[in-house]
# Entry
Amino acid sequence: MHCPFCQHTDTRVIDSRVSEDGATIRRRRECEACGERFSTLENIEIKLPAVIKSDGRRDVFDARKLRAGFDRALQKRPVSEEQIEAAVRAVVHAIRMSGEREIASRRIGEFVMNELRKLDHVGYVRFASVYRSFQDVADFREEIEKLERDLPAGETQLPLLGGDVVPFGKHPDKHRKR
# Structure
């Protein structure tokens, strides 16, 4: 590997560590010529299928776009970076396990919605509203009612504004007289 400081072609590894999730290796290197030290990250490279867009175009799969979709849906929601990264990895794994050379963007959207449904129901509805092109409030209402119907008994929802976790659809202020 070339030294990023002096461009010398000979560097040596002085330390290697595997990440917590086992997906990357961090290597500490030292340049033989200038003595500078730097770190590199080694990732597994697996070819993922091409993405077929709704207009028929084909595009290279880009995990950054996938992450950006999760970030937009979960903006200002109480979901940790680790949870989002795990969801992105789950979608990439599902795509990889499909075994296909090409995959429709709609199918990727379904994988994303499945993960968002597990993570945060507000994020799920946000994503669904764009993904399914909601036209009016009735579309939102229908999706929320479907979500409530499909939830297993006792499943909890992340709180909208902090506080305790409450069962979805059972907010304490819901039955308060006004």
Q: What stands out?
A: The chain is about 40% helix and 20% strand. The chain has a mean pLDDT of 83. The first helix runs from residue 63 to 73. The beta strands are 11-18, 24-31, 37-43, 50-52, 58-59, 102-104, 156-157, 166-167.
